[in-house]
Predict the 3D structure of the following.
Amino acid sequence: MTEPVLSVRDLRVEFVTRRGVLKAIDGVSFDIAKGEVLGVVGESGAGKSVTGSAIIGLIDPPGRIAGGEIWLSGSRIDNLPPEEMRKVRGKRIGMIFQDPLTSLNPLYRIGEQLVETIQTHTDLSASAARRRAIELLAEVGIPAPERRIDGYPHEFSGGMRQRVVIALALCAEPELIIADEPTTALDVSVQAQIIALLKRLGRERGTAIMLITHDMGVIAETADRVAVMYAGRIAEIGPVRDVVQNPLHPYARGLMGAIPTLAQDADRLVQIPGSMPRLSAIPPGCPFHPRCPHAWERCTVDRPAPLPHGASQVACHLYDRNDPTAEAHQRMTHPPAEEGVAA
Ligand SMILES: Nc1ncnc2c1ncn2[C@@H]1O[C@H](COP(=O)(O)OP(=O)(O)O)[C@@H](O)[C@H]1O
Ligand SMILES: [Mg+2]
């Protein structure tokens, strides 16, 4: 077994508010291997971005990492001093956000930004760094890069700008790229190109990629493995084929069924009644139990730990082989509790 590029162990992130301590991330563990794309999905507020921010050391007060460990290629990074972490960010971890203008300074030509970043991370001369920048622009599919390098961010379309951001992330040859909804702001046709680009770069360079999105279509096309998040926890994680085509967790089943483009047959189009709980009202036991058609008493009190199932892990008592009643509950369904009952 080779060491994973990223290893997150029992991560917990809290926000301290006037209403108390809110647990945004509560015991999340996963690995990403070299060259692997891990897709992270889940409804808005599930904790996807907070998980990404924790990995890159950008949880600001009133938020804090309250527990767990984050390892990057065998070295622990969650307890580094801020200036050390700043070096890890950018050098060893690249970031791509929804809005390319988060990463690009509108006042500088893109070449200046690329050259500066390259020179921060290598000992290349200015002219060599410029040649390298042109190569990177070509690699991410910018046409006529030797001319475009002198353009300003506003002279690029949204999709081309996101390509520039990807080139910027690649300048330091990072081990890990965290892409948080990188295509959400783009046209559908451009989305596919950007996703294909990310996937190719991951393969060719061996970069590990954490791809956060609420778009199951993107996941199905790009990810090697998928983590389904719910209320700050991982409900299910496993190979993309298994999780998308044969989800185990009732929440994951609902989520996959709720994606029209992926649901070939109408009977998969199940909507999940209710909504994800607010952080101040996460129910005890399994946080999904008020919405779960299979939930029984145990689910209301006993928090499910991730259980191995095939090549996946699923945090659901239905898959507990030591529970003699679990199988019967698989077959049993009842309408979920009224929304708000848990609050
Ligand atoms: N600065 C903050 N203060 C308080 N709560 C926050 C803060 N940032 C995020 N949260 C909460 O953490 C939870 C997870 O948010 P987030 O990771 O952004 O979700 P998503 O899965 O949509 O990316 C949400 O309930 C959100 O309201
Ligand atoms: Mg988010």
